[in-house]
Amino acid sequence: MYLGLDLGTSGIRALLVHADGSVAGSAEATYPISHPQRGWSEQNPADWVTACNGVVADLRAAHPDEWAGLKGIAVAGQMHGATLLGADDTMLRPCILWNDTRSFAEAAELDAQANLRALSGNIVFPGFTAPKLLWVARNEPEIFARIAKVLLPKDYLTFWLTGEHVSEMSDAAGTAWLDVGKRAWSQDLLDASDMRMDQMPRLVEGSEMAGALRGSLAQEWGISHPVAVAGGGGDNAVAACGVGALSEGDGFVSLGTSGVLLAAKDSFSPMPETAVHTFCHAIPDTWYQMGVILAATDSLNWLARNLGQDAATLSKALGDRIEGPGKTRFLPYLSGERTPHNDSTIRGALLNLDISHGPKELTQAVMEGVAFALRDNLEALKTTGTRLERVLAIGGGAQSPYWVELCATLLDLPIDLPAKGEFGAAMGAARLAQCAATGVRAQDVMSAPDVARTIAPRSDLKAAYEEAYQSFRATYPALKDLP
Predict the structure, then answer these.
(1) For the chain, which end, N or C, has fewer CB atoms within 10 Å of the first or last residue's CB respectively?
(2) Which residues have a catalytic role annotated?
(3) Is 80 within any annotated ligand binding site?
């Protein structure tokens, strides 16, 4: 048995998985996010530990026989967070999360330095880890002086599981401290933000063993045999492992809290000026590129919250088929935007509102705005030479046939919907755990899920949506120029 843990922004999901990929059981727990100031987003790592203990207790109670056969664990997680430990491994401050934008000035300063993009393969975004540490150095110098180790969120959980300070390539690639082509920490990149090599965790591949489950924790969990803990990976890389997106041409579109268009790559070929992320994959000698929008289902949830309705109810009101673009335009920049704009200060907008409009029209505008922004991501990916023939849809928004058909039409790609079952980051983590515990090749266990159906682009509506997309694309510069 293998345990996959997905440490998300709002909660943790655990899957207990057999060697053949079938799921024995699952459990979930939530934890809070703190926003002490505008643009700040923090979390208490102790809450991750409490949540992990909770899901393990649930799995042990529900599946005692399967739990007794546990051989491996891996953690997938939210990327870019700064978890700061002192010399005695005590927590120095709350973790600064991926969606925290306080370090926008530090990010711009780092990004302007010579060779930084060439080494890291990426623009330095405000959400990345390096500018967060530069902000801490300038605003919390007494804390900065005490830092012994910087761990990413899932690496902190791996540390709690093993007692080892370890990271891996896919998550480390989002720090702006990793030479992504060489898959190694870069002294030049560390120097740029006044960090030291000894403050970095040891690096392994995501499918390699990071350490063994601590004896005291194994005893507490009722386990009397060795359990391997894998390196794990950043959430999107591990989601790619969960759906078998490992080779050139494989890809997925994720309609989750954020929106992602991801393409696996057999080689390192960055083009950072496009604001496309080029990161190491969670398996050896493989990379991936992705465009990211910061608010996908988050945009629909925002609308639902303000209308006092349920997001699923709003979505169902549109039906299953698209009928052509609306006149109202929504720009989904509720928390700023990454690809292609790299703009942490831009904010969202609703345009062309009419007195006759109600929840249905607003929902359509929000869904279209997210799909238009994902088309922006595709155009950015194309400039790097990436080509996709079809993609798999994952994430909560993929439950809406309307939204998937809208994305298929705007991306002009067939979109496969997986058959019911478990996939994504928690499943990918379980597969990484299996690799670490047994030495099996990633390609032998990370297969694509069965496809329930494929949603094709609507050729009859392609021209109408193309015109609407060009209108959307022209709106960002005008919004940016507003005072």
Answers:
(1) C
(2) 235
(3) yes
